[in-house]
Structures are given as structure tokens and as C-alpha cells.
Amino acid sequence: MLEIERSRTGLPILKIEGRFINSSYDPVREAQLWLKNQVTKLNDFNKIIILGLGNIYHCFELRNAFPDKEIIILEVDGELLNGSLAHFNALTAFQIFHISKASDIFGNSKIMDASENIFCTLRLPSTQILNKGIFDEIETLLTGRSSYALTQFGQARREYKSQIDFHNLPSDQVLSVKDIASAFRNSDERLTKERRVLYILEELIR
Amino acid sequence: MKILIVQLLRLGDIVLSTPVIQGLRDQYPNAKIDLLINRQFENVVRLLPEINQCYFFDRELIQSAIGESDRFIFEAFDRVEQLICSLNSQNYNHIFNLTHNKLSAYLTGAIQAETRIGLWYDDQNGPRIESAWFQHLNFDQQGSDTNCFHFVDIYKYSAQINRPRLGIRLRENAADREWVINYLRKSTKGGPHIVIQALTSDAKKNWQLKKFRSSIESIYASMPEANFTLLGSPNEEGQLRKAFGDLKFCEILICDLGRAYSLLLKSDLLITGDTSIKHIASASEIKIIELCLGSSDFKRTGAYSENAIIIQSQEACAPCQHNSNCPYSSHLCSDRISHELMSVVAVDTLRTRGLHLSKIAEEFSDEAKFYRVDIYKTGTWMALEEASGDFESQVLKTIRKFATKLYVQHSANERNIFLEMGTEADHLAMLMREMSAKTSLKILMQLFEKYEKSLNLKQFRINTIENDFYRYRLSDPNPIKLGSLLKELKSFEDQDETKPESLSAHFFIDDKTPTFVGLRKLQTALSKAKLKTEIEMKLVRSLQIDLEV
Predict the structure, then answer these.
(1) Where does B28-101 have alpha helices with state H?
(2) Is A119 close to B72, i.e. CB distance below 8 A?
(3) Which of B477, B41, B537, B534 has its CA nearest to residue B280?
(4) What is the ipTM of this complex?
(5) pLDDT tens, A146-173?
(6) 20 to 30 Å CA-CA from B459: which of A83, A104, A148, B476?
């Protein structure tokens, strides 16, 4: 059950099934401290997919720090999502999507569009407690490092679709660039732009 | 016109690219000249003149995207692709790939351009080297003294720069200059200012810090008026403070490249290992003493500065392979060089501009070899060994280097080299006259005569092998006969008293090589040897005439 309470600094905070998901003292300060450790990493990305809405103040801080970056928020808990939207008007400025099961991300055009660009996935601290299992699964899929996820993302990418032999990917392990290289090699020998990129990456692994 | 220069090596290599950038700017004043370098050396850009736009290859970011399993698998692809797209949008006319490795070759091939100089891969995944100078670099990886050309020269020649004497050039920032003036005002005692870059990026190339310390103390004892600054990067600060922190007369300066360059411009002597600082120093008038240890390859990357002194350890294993670890518990090449040697050379360089270097070389001949850098008027860098007893070999090396240059130029331009060798031959004669001052003209003429005879013999042997080759080709070509022909070639090389570059080193034929490929390679090697010998012969004969007059 979702409850709204006030922090000691007077800000609304969320309580789910008796547990606070924000700092009950100063949620803004908590979010600022968290963001401090993420800034360097995030500078290198233009699109950020945030897993979990729970710590809403984290999203606000992120938006303040990076007003120009595209931020997509994925939330699993429908009640939390609706409750939050009702209490925090500022959330309407974000692209927030309800994901009920992990594979839903492949049916979401915004997420698939984001994957066409350089993006990073950021997991909010609350997702380590609330719906951890599903968020773990979403996080894994968003890395594209399983045969299933890569096939889904790869199919969406026209330029790679014709060049990667997706059946040739190992199905039981975390995929690496080397695995893509093996799947590439079975196609024709002409040096396309994508193949060049792959060779460049292989040189970097060496 | 739009030109892209690809330089994906380290900081020093970027600095070594400045002469070619300057040369291109002189030749094409209105061209847009862009540079592609690794992001980690972003700081050097403000020192580089004549660059319109700099692109960065995010090597570290891409490598982490490949390696970290929590990052999107296509991220690394996307980053490289994004870079290629932004470079392609520029529609370059020419690309100069100054990085002789596969990564840059794939990248260069992916960028659209009318011409590409240097290594690149075409659409059929075939390696292409569109410059005789880069081909020369490719086939002479372990080249001898006479075959090796400095990277700066290779870059300039391959870009066909009209001003061969162009050296390294950097841009000084006014704020850095101001800062250095204030810094020197505080520390100066009126004597010369000595800058020391004690640490390199590779432990194998480092000289012991305690030896640096002893050298500094000895120099100070001889020249108490001297000022000392130890340069270092932030990650070297701890080591430097520990080793030199208590030396009252020696400042430790941790600063950026801009300030380091300004300091070098105002200082008198730099003592350094194989570092980018020596290349930055080459853009100034400062005297340079370079310690060549570990895998340092001074023949290609030595200080590009006239009269720079290069000290190479006499240890048998030096120089070692770049990628191999030192098998010894301590670095023997570094151990071998004493602090006395360094202090004597430094004091002599400051007091007499290295007038007594050959005597010092004799005295410390069991520790190191000493070289002095000369940049010829025709634009060739050469490190000449300072050893009194090795005059003959120096003369031969110089002639051969000129011959190699003429030979590669011939391959590059496909022009009649014998019509164009005048300038090189004139300059060689001038050099020989200078060299003859060390001995007598008579001895030099005798040397030429001896050399001419050996070249005659060499020509005769090449002709014999060539005749055998044609006879063999007309008969029934088979691998056994080809093998015996190769043996003949090998024994010819072994017998050659002038010890030239190896012919057989230019190609590799194993049991699986088809006979026709072997034949083609052999024919190429023979014609190369024939032409090079002919060039050497012409040079020697023209020297004989010039010097006699």
C-alpha cells in the first residue's frame, strides 16, 4: 500500500508497505549525494534510461543536472506510478513508461528508438528493494548481452540485421563483442562500414 | 580543400606530426586541416598550430563499453560509427594516416576521401599503403641504421612537403609564458636553467631516480649557479617528492603541457628519457640530452632537434622489444649508465655545447654509445655516433642513408632519380668535406675507392644471380630450384663486406608459397638491390669527383 508522508524538511516522501523509499530526513540531499557519483559517467551519454521511479527526487536532480539529455523512466509498480504522478506534478515532464514484464521493453518504441543511439541505463537505489527481480531482468535485457536480447535489438537495427547471423550466437552465456564478431564472419567478405567498425573494436580488444 | 590527419598514437607522436601539418598549411594556405587523435591527449590541441578542427577517438570510453558487461552491447559500435559519420560529413579530399596500425587503417578506409596516404583497408579488406615511404616503413620494421628514417621525415616525405627542413612547431600560450616568467623570477640564480624529466610512461625506459639525483648533485657541484627544475605529471608527483623532495636547489614542478613548453622555451638544457617532453622541447632552442633505455627506438623517434645528444646503453640486450617484459630483476641497460656519465655530458653541453663529446664517448665507451643529431639541409634526421675509431662506418652509413632516401623517393615519384640526385649529392659532398676535417681528404678518397670496389663486386654478384634467375624462370620453375636460388642470394648477403640491408629480409617464402609468388618476390628484391647499388655507386663516384675538385 502506498502512503505519502512528509520528510523532516517538509517535502512529500513515499512509503510503501510501511517502508520509506526516500530519506525521511532530507530526500533532496540524498538524491544530490547519489547524483554526485554518477555525473562523470553520465556526461558521456545523451539518452538515459532510468530503472525505477521510486526515489522521485533522484529523477528531479538528474533533470536539473542535465536539462538537455533525454530521460526515459521505466517503472514496474503501477500503483506507485499512478500515486507518484498524482502527487508530483513535475513528473509529467518526463517520459515515464509502465513495464509489467521485462520483455515489454522490446514492444516499447521509445526504448527501441533510444537503443538506436548511445544510451546508458541507470538503476535507482529503490529498485534493489522494490520489484528487484523484474528490474534485474530489465537491466540484463537492456545490456543486449544475451542471445535473446541481442536478437531483439539487432532485428531493430537494419544495418546489422542483414550482417549478423543471429542463429550463430551462443545462447547460454553473457555475450561479448567477440561473439558478434563470430556471428559476423559467416556472412559475405565485403568490407562494409559495420564490418570495419567490428574490426576496429576487435583491434581495441587485442 | 579538406585534409584529415589521423594520428592515433601517443602524445609524442602527435607532436611529431606538427611538421607535416605545418608543411601542408604552407602548401595549402586555405585548406581546412583537421586532426583525429585519441581523446586522452585532448590537452595537447591548444599547443598545435594550423589545425582547424580536432576530432577525438574515445579509445578508453569505447574500450570500457566493450569490456563492461553492464553496458549496452552496441554502445561501442555506435560510438565508432558516430565518429565515422561525423568525419564523413566533412567530405575530405585527402586523408593522411600517420598511424601505422590496423585500427587506424580500418578507420581510414571507412572515411570517404579522394586520396588516402598511409595504411588503409579497401572494400575487399585488402591492405593498401599509398605511399612509398610508408611501404618502406612497413617492410623495414627492424631496419638498420641506414634504412631507418625518423617518423617526422617519413611523414614529411610521404606528404611531399616542399620545405624539407621543417621541424617541430608548437604554439605558446601568453598566459603560460607569463606564468613561467614569474616562476623563473622566483627561482633564478643567474646561471643556466636545467629541466629534468626523470620519469617516462614505461618503467623499462626509466633511469633510476637515485642516479638522476646523484647526477643533479654532481652538476650542481660543478655549476653552483645552475637552476634545476624536475618536471612531472600529477601521477608522478609522489615519486618525485620522495626522491628529490629534500634537494633544496631543485624545484619539483607539476604542470600541464602548455606551461612545460613555456618553461622549455626559457631553459638551457633538458635531460630526459624517451618522453613526449623531449618532442615538445624539440620545438624550442633548448639543448637536449636523451637517455635511450629499454625499448626506446631513437632511430625513429629520437629528439628531432639539431645537436641533441642521445645516450644509448651499451648493454647487449638494448634496445629490447617494445612489448616484451624485461627478463632481468633489474634493468641492466639502466644500471650500466653511471651518474658520472650524465653529469659530465650535461656540464660539457652547457659549457662548450658538447665540444668534448667524442672524448667523453671514448672515456665512457663501456657504458654507452653517444650520438649527436644532425638534420641535413635536404631534411633528413640522422644520429651520428660519436666514436673516434669508427670513421669508416660513419661515412658508409651516411652514404647509404642518402642512397636509401633516393631509392624510396624514386619509388614514390617514379621519376628518374639519376636526374634528380644533384641536390642530395651536393649536400652529401658538403657533409663529407665536414667529416674529412676529422681525418684527411686522402683517407676519405681511399675509403671511397675501397667502397667503389666493393660496390662493383656487389653489382657483379647481383648480375650473376639475376642471370641465374632468368635462366631458371625460362626452364622448369620448381620450388627446389627456387630454394637453391634463395640460398645463393643469402650466401651473397653473408659474404658482402659492406654489410648492407638484407635482401631476403624483404620477403618471406615458405613451403606453401606458390612458385610464381616466390619468383615475383625474388625478382622485386633483385631489382631493388640493383637500383640501390647503382644509386650508391653514382653517389660515391660523384663524391670522388666533387671532393677531388
Answers:
(1) 59-67, 75-88
(2) yes
(3) B41
(4) 0.91
(5) 888 988 888 777 777 778 888 888 888 8
(6) B476
